[in-house]
Prior knowledge:
The complex is a heterodimer.
Chain A: H1 2-27, E1 42-47, H2 52-68, E2 71-76, H3 81-94, E3 99-102, H4 111-119, E4 124-128, E5 139-143, H5 145-160, E6 165-171, H6 177-190, E7 196-203, H7 208-221, E8 227-230, H8 236-245, E9 259-264, H9 267-274, E10 280-283, H10 286-301, E11 310-313, E12 316-319, H11 323-326, H12 331-334
Parallel strand pairs in A: 1-2, 1-3, 3-4, 4-5, 5-11, 6-7, 6-8, 8-9, 9-10
Antiparallel strand pairs in A: 10-12
Helix pairs in contact in A: 2-10, 3-4, 5-6, 7-8
Chain B: H1 2-17, H2 20-34, H3 41-66, H4 74-86, H5 88-91, H6 95-120, H7 124-143, E1 148-149, H8 152-159, E2 161-162, E3 165-166, H9 167-185, H10 187-197, H11 199-204, H12 209-235, E4 237-238, H13 246-256, H14 268-288, H15 292-320, H16 336-340
Helix pairs in contact in B: 2-14, 3-9, 3-10, 3-12, 3-13, 3-14, 4-6, 4-7, 4-12, 6-7, 6-12, 8-12, 9-10, 10-12, 13-14, 14-15
Amino acid sequence: MKRFGVVRCLATVAVASLTLTACGSTASSNGSDGAASGKKRTLGVSFDLLNAIRQAEKSSIQKAAEAAGYSVIFNVADQDAQKQASQIQDLIQTKKVDAVIVIAQDGQQIASSASLAKARNVPFLAIDRSVADQQNITFQITGDPVADGKAVAAEFIAAAKTTPLKVLELVGGLTDQNAIGRRDGFNAAVAGQPNITVVSQVPTDWNPTQALDGTSNALQKDPTINAIYVPSDFLLPSVQSALTAAGRLAPIGDPKHVFMVTIDGDQNGCKAMQAKTLDADIATPVDEFGKQAIAAVTTALGGRPVDPKTVQAKGLTLNQANFATTSSQVWGCAS
Amino acid sequence: MSRATDCYGRLRAVLRREPLLPVLVVVLLGLAASYHEFATVANFRNIAVQASPLIVAAVGMTYVIMTAGIDLSVGSMLFLAAAIESSRAVVGLPTAVVFAVICATGVLMGLLNGVAVAFTRVPALIVTLATMQVFRGAGGHVTGQQNIDLPANLRGIGTGSLLGVPTPVLIAAAVALGGGFVFSRTTFGRYVQAVGSNPDAAVNAGLPVRRVLVGAYAVAGLLAAVASLTQTARLGAVQPSIGQGFELTVITAVVLGGTTLFGGRGSIGGTVLGALVLTTVQTGLVFSGASPYVFDIVRGSVLLAAVLAAGARWRKLAHAVGLTGRGRPSRDGRYGGATSA
């Protein structure tokens, strides 16, 4: 019995270690970057997750930090707000970083981390996702989801001048400010447009399978749908698969072509633009995030106030007309 | 007359065994009556294809839940299997070899869960919560968190068909029939039910309880990997967020199908019906043009209804065996005392 109890204890410890190992495997993917060396100043970076756009944002920060002479300790919270709070606490209290840059998993919950940073006099910067409590934030740079939604709508409105559009509108996560902003900006801009009818709104929860199933179902319900608003490039392969299954994935000019516009400007979008199956892509200014965040860190560490404290960077419209001249500025086409 | 009585008796027996069947029929008829585009062959085919990965993974989960366990790592196993499928070392191999590699990966992941649960008696919830992170982290490492397109031969698993029946549906049908056969006609299947009903009695009867537990989790791992093949083939790519939250959908399908979370009772047929009801409701929501917010409300309500129904079934069972309806969990979280009373 006793021996069994020891086995259970060991097993519990093993499981706990396994969990910690799992956390560590993704959370400190680039830990060596941050090895404190000499008097070099160190920045702590905590991302909510690591996907294609986050990889680009990470590169942008690393490039700008290296140019400014900072080293970087990089963490990923695996979409866990509690874990992100612990990581930031560790960065500030144990690793004693000089500044913290975050992409918040939860714009509300990150407030406690920001106040901890303020108490320790560590500049706290938020990028990509906005933070609810601005009081303790040194600098924030995000995209402008409403403006991006409006930019998508501008492409739809231009296309609707020649062909009436029956639109399937996919919506991202309903608790995500970016998703809501992109939806609201689009809906406000197309409201009242005589040649644009939104026939179906389908939530995807930023889940590729839900995007695939939702698009398939909407095309079944209304085969006359001839336009789709995809709120992120990472859902594009799902939509393309649904269109392929329905025999509707065709390049611009083909009568079967479905007019499509997405946001983000990643590799999926860039490839689809080249194949002419995608009409436009509103690219997130990822490079600006890194450059402006590091510039703000330098200002704050120099003891000067950062002004402006909040920046909203609008997306860059990439369409078939300007593809040749503009694609080099889009992170997904450049990488 | 006697033939009619016989048919009626059989129908009653089927309805008693699968109470979800009339629910599915009512939902289908209601949607068909409301939207004329719904009752088309193309749409039913669409629903069947969409339900296929869920059916495959849910059959595996049924085995685990039948042992009074749970597997929260199913979505992450799906992702890691997909990641390995898309890796350079595997993706260029012939389809049959890829299939074998993915199945082996699934079995290994399931074995890890099973051995940890069976030999340590750490609750399955904790073990699979940990491995959920391990598998997702490993998948992220393999893919570099990038979208990876699959070659045409692997996409064919999702888009091909045989005699007009889509390949994912054929795979799901084969898994459901095979799973049902193993469950009801083999020694392993009966052991699974016995272990879930009363693990102490199973030990006393000399049943290989640990091996049965390991086997159940290995089946769940294998079928999560098979589900990943159909899922990624349909998507045409492996994406970092694939399988996230899938475990909840799978568990909902199993519980909705009548398998009790306390183990020992359930059926593969019920699980298949549970998956079909979930997928049909999801399709119906798109047809209805409901607000995106309604989707979450309906999904949550279905889960709640499933859990309440499972609770009602548990109370009925506890009453039948002389308990007052308040079974107490044993040290490892199982309600072993209920059926032994």
